Amino acid sequence: MAEPKFISAPDKVTAHIKQLEPAVAKVVQTIRQTILDAHPQIGEHIKWNSPAFFYDGEMKPFDPKEYKRDIVVVNLHRGKILLVFPTGATIDDSSGLLEGTYTDGRRMVTFKDLEDVKAKAKTLQQVIQQWISLVD
Fold first, then answer.
1. 21: Cβ contacts below 8 Å, ≥ 6 apart
2. Residues in contact with 64: Cβ distance below 8 Å, sequence separation at least 6, in sequence order
3. What is the mean pLDDT of residues 57-64?
């Protein structure tokens, strides 16, 4: 089954971020740039009413319900800034950045504030690069 190719929509992501409370927008923009800087084949769009990032390169066909193209979705929930990696369990994360043991394979990253994002940025990029290295 051929999965649909996502179309990058940076203008929509920018517009979405501009609607956020300014302090939160600054944190989300920093996360966004950190993710995009991790690899040249990362696209972005709005998914589930949040900025989401996906692998934009070639992949073997797969069932869209497997979320193999989705890297990470930003989730603003109850004052927390979370990153949800739908297939995060596939990453061998020895850094401890990815949290949770969800049976559906998700893993999360929680950020407290802008300083926390900056402190975890390099590790976040390494996790994303490892995720991309597993793409088939």
1. none
2. 1, 3, 4
3. 76
